[in-house]
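F.,

This is the one I mentioned.
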C-alpha cells in the first residue's frame, strides 16, 4: 500500500481535514501530509509526542478488545483541532486532524470507504 498516496487522497476527502498520516506499531509516523496553507499548532517535537500518545492510547484500549471488541475509531476533540485515529490493521493507525467543527462522522465514513477500496 502506498501510504503517501493514501494520505494525499484522504486529505482531499473534505476541506475540513488539516492533516493525514500513518503511524506504525513502533510509534513512527511513516507517512504524513499537511493541508497546504494550514499552519500546524504543534512543533515537530510536539507532533512526535502526540503520535506517541495516540499509539499509547491504542495499546491501552487493545487490552480490553477481548471483552468489548476491536477499536473502530477514536475521536479526541480539542478547542482548536479534532484528532481522529482509525486502525488500518493490527499494526498501523491512520491519523487525521480536522477543524474543530468538522462533521467527523462523515469524514470517518469517507475515510473507511477509501481505506477499504484502496487496499483491495
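My design for it:
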Amino acid at each position: 500500500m502506498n501510504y503517501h498516496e493514501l494520505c494525499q487522497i484522504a486529505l482531499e476527502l473534505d476541506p475540513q481535514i488539516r492533516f493525514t498520516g500513518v503511524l506504525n506499531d513502533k510509534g513512527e509516523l511513516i507517512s504524513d501530509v499537511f493541508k497546504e496553507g494550514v499552519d500546524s499548532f504543534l512543533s515537530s517535537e510536539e507532533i512526535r509526542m502526540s503520535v506517541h500518545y495516540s499509539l499509547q492510547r491504542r495499546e491501552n484500549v487493545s487490552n480490553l478488545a477481548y471483552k468489548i471488541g476491536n477499536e473502530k475509531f477514536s475521536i479526541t476533540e480539542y478547542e482548536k483541532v479534532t484528532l481522529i485515529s482509525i486502525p488500518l490493521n493490527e499494526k498501523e493507525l491512520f491519523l487525521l486532524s480536522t477543524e474543530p467543527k468538522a462533521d467527523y462522522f462523515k469524514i470517518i465514513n469517507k475515510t473507511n470507504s477509501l481505506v477499504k477500496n484502496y487496499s483491495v
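The chain has a mean pLDDT of 87.

Talk soon.
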